[in-house]
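Question (not urgent): is this output format expected?
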Amino acid sequence: MALVHYGVKPGIEHGYSPNSSLLSLGRVPADGEVARHLEIRGGAGVLRIERLRMANDEPVGIETTHLALARFPGLAQRMDSTTSTVLERDYGVRLSAGKETIETIPAPPREAALLCTEVGCPMLLIIRTTRDLAGTPVEYGRSHYRGERLQLVADLRPPVTLANET
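Got this back:
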C-alpha cells in the first residue's frame, strides 16, 4: 500500500466548525531552511503567510507558509482566497504533490500562548513542501498543532501502475 493522500482535519468530523484568522502577511528574506525547501537562494524574497486555525473559534493550530516572490510577484495583494485558489487563478499554478513530515515537539512559548496551552506541552509540528505539476517547489510550510485537538487522516491505496511500466 502507498500513502496517496494525507490530511489534517482539526475535529471537523466531530462537529467542529473550522475557521482561521490571518496573523501576518509580509515579505521576508528566505533563511537557509526556507531556501533549501523552495530551491531558491538564501536571502531571496519570500511571502510569509501565518494563519491561526480554529475549530469553533478555539485555536488549534498555527500554519506558516512561504512562497518565492520572484515566482509570484504581487502575491500579497492578491491573497483574497485560499493560497491554492490564488496560485491557480492568478498564476496558472496547480499544486500536485508534496511531502510532509510530522513530529512531536514541546510547545514553544509563542505557539503555546497563541494556542492557549502551556509551554512544553506536546504539540505536533508538520513540515510540508508542496510542488506543482512539473515538480517544482511552490510552497514550504511549518504548522504547529495542539495534539489533543487534531485528527490525522490518511487514505491508503495501492500504487498506480501505468500501462507502459514493466
